[in-house]
Amino acid sequence: MAEQQLVTFRLGGEEFGVDIMRVQEIIRIPPITRVPKAPAYVEGVINLRGNVIPVVSLRTRFGMERVEDTDLSRIIVLQVHKKVFGIRVDAVTEVLRLDDSAIEPPPPVALGMDSQFIHGVGKIGERLLILLDLDNMMGGEMGHEFEA
Amino acid sequence: MSPDDKREQGVDLGEFLEFYLLDSQEQIDKLGTGLLQLEKEGGNIGLINDLFRSAHSLKGASGTMGFTQIVALTHAAEDLLDRLRQGKMAVTLDVVDVLLAVTDRVKAMLAQVGQRQEITVEYADLVEAMKALINGEKRSVPGSGAANLPNAKAAGMPAAEAAGGVPRANDDFVVVDFGLTAEEWAMINEAQAMGHGVYQVDVALAPQTLMKAVRAVMAVQRAEGLGKFVKLFPGMEELEAGSPEGFSLLIISDEAPAEIANEILGVSELVRAEIHNYPAAQLWADRRAEVGAAREASSGSPASPGSPASSGSTAASSGRAAAAGTAAGGAAAAPAESSPGLARAGAAGDPKVPRATTVAGAQSPVNIAAQESGLAAAPAAVENGSTQVHTIRVDTARMDNLINLVGEMVITRTRLVQIGLDLKNAYRTDPLVSNLIETNVYLGRLMNDLQESVMRLRMVPIGTVFSRFPRLVRDLARKTGKEIELVLKGEDTELDKTVVEVIGDPLMHLIRNSVDHGIETPEVRRAAGKPEMGTITLDAYHEGNHIAIIVADDGAGLPLERIRAKAIEKGLISEREELADRDIANLIFLPGFSTAEQITDISGRGVGMDVVKKALNNLGGMIDIDTRRGQGTTFIIRLPLTLAIIQALLVEVGEEIYAVPLSSVLETLLVERSDIKTVGGLPMVQLRGNTLPLISLQQKFDLPASPNPSGEVFVVVVGLGDKALGLIVDGLRGQQEIVIKSLGELLSNLPGIAGATILGDGKVTLILDIGSLIQDILVARKG
């Protein structure tokens, strides 16, 4: 039976998971430079060892209110379609394995957030894990926005 | 081994393939430019030699890689060039046309090779056309499309048969029967199929040469260095025992005949080396016919395109040799009618040929007397020697890596300087601190040099871009029935490789526009009292920290009234608005603007000038127009020299810091808020009697307003060309060297932002795109 390895993190009251193969690294929040005229969910850009990469605020992306950084706040640096960007999360929780059989398609009314960012819901006992669809996080939608 | 086997079996071939493609592309480019020059200058023997060499190496390389189609095509082209080279044919428009068509076709083939596809591009029609030209027929050049192929083929076939049947005129050399074994036959047949040259080298010994066999051995050794030596005639024993006046070698080589001759003549006591294509295919056919007895030895068998010797003849043609011999002296006269350049070259070469050692017959068409071609090739060789640039090819990724590292070092040094200053504040008297600061200064100087050297690696002459335009203009001019000369200037002007890579398309667009809309037809020009030949000038030069590229034509100029009318119709400007000519001209850069009444397939689809502008803005440059009714239009493009490391002025806007490229900063001002007036919704300030439009960065970028605004603001005056603009900022942070980093694909194309950089404290700072800010203001003023 196929299984996935996931990095899980917390955002508000929810727990999310991303494919570990897409995760390049996890860093503390460095100074973030605001980028004028960029889409609202782009919090800004950071210096990642000499490379400038954009950071998406998942809270803004999912329509949650902004919160102050805590000691647990992190940026998960992802690589999707050779593009590197970071997502800002409240806390990274763990790395776990999840059986494919434990993953269900996203519910039609998707937890009050845009279902285009969700590719499934994982069940671990009583815990529910929202599995992120990273292709649309920046690659898909952003591509359209800038082509237009 | 068939080429297919080779490709399947060779996993490594991919590695060579890249080199092959690069190299072939280079040769094709060389051929293309050379041909256009040939068209202009007529027969210039040095030039033809260069072309021949390019075609030859293209053929050789393609043969090695097993692309028989390319070999066949380039081989035919090489034949044609060979005829030109020997002055047996004059350079005509037809010849240039067909050869240009060959370069196009080979390009298409290379494209297929590049995509790892089978070569399916048709080429037989061109081969026939070239054969027909060689045989003195006048035929139109087959188009590059496949549509007219059947016709061309139908017309071409009889010509080909004629070529095969009738031995090439003036063919007099005696084919030596080397007594080859079956293996040797197989070897040379395969070599020919692969496109290698198979040559019979007739070597003449000086009279009374001692140890003739030794000379032969030395010649054989040299031949080995040129390719593959197959056989010597007569054999060693006979050479030693008898008193032959010379001997013959059979070799397989990719070198040009003249080079082979030069190499072999390096052996002392050898007075002459004549190189002939060895008609192996023909001989092989004859031999098989003899052996097979019953089979007809048809000398009219259709020539296979891959064999260089297919048009060569057997001894049967020797009857014509006499005629050729007597005509040889007059050979140079033939091209005189049509191409003065070639005639001169021939005439100059002739007297130097030592008649005493050259038998009259030695100047026959297919062979090349070593002395003659040696002389002809010598100036070219000298020229090559002096202009040869010693270069290595480096993967751009490696170079970019180096530049990145240098960039990181620049940042780190800035940090060191900061630490030094901090230490100085803390421990003012410690001599170690001043030591550190001194060392920092020295390091800074080294870094500057290093940076400059590294940046120079990326600089390439703009000529590499310009070189593709003569062909474009020629073709477009022919298509539109106009007479246009393209004048190139400043090709040596260097600029960053990335700029060179992307500047091509915008320039092409401007040139197409000039050809299509700028230059008038010859009739119109005559009526207007202008020379019928229109001129488009392409120029490049340095202008401060920028490079200016000029595309100018002497055509009709932009139809300003029509542009104005169109702009009003589209609601881009109001009817009342008074605009200077120049501002009207600038309207064509607005999206979707085209006044072309007739859409041609060259330009005028309404997309275009705005795309050109956008592409240039993306590079941090801008474009301007100067147009005069009846006198022509000039486009002036201004681009930054380099895109990687620049001097910048850091400015504060609220909490944020932005970097302004210093190359566009004209001055900084301290302005009373009360002096800022608003005209038509845009802030302005009077500066030395002129009105300077202003942009508030805080408003432009929707930044939070400063909590306690002071009565004075800083204005950074930036300009490109003669356009200026003031940026309202809260403070100046001083100037610093910054390394430009891309914001990445995800955040490209943000208005007003050219990129990002990392400051000494590790924080990211955005770099302003002055070109786009200025152009925004210009458009805003119109709208």
Description:
The complex is a heterodimer of chains A (148) and B (783). With 148 residues, chain A is mainly beta. Chain A has a single domain, classed as OB fold (Dihydrolipoamide Acetyltransferase, E2P), CATH 2.40.50.180. Chain A contains two helices and eleven strands; from the N terminus they run E-E-E-E-E-H-E-E-E-E-E-E-H. A six-stranded mixed β-sheet of chain A has the order 8-1-2-11-10-9, with no helix packed on it. The longest helix of chain A is centred in the last third of the chain and has 9 residues, at 139-147. Mean pLDDT of chain A is 81; it is low at 140-148. Chain B has 783 residues and is an alpha+beta fold. Chain B has 26 helices and 23 strands. In chain B, a hairpin with a 2-residue loop joins strand 13 (645-653) and strand 14. The longest helix of chain B has 31 residues, at 396-426. Chain A binds chain B through residues 30-31, 33-38, 42, 44-47, 50-54, 83-85, 138, 142, 146, and chain B through 404, 407-408, 411, 656, 700-703, 741-753, 756, 758, 762-766.
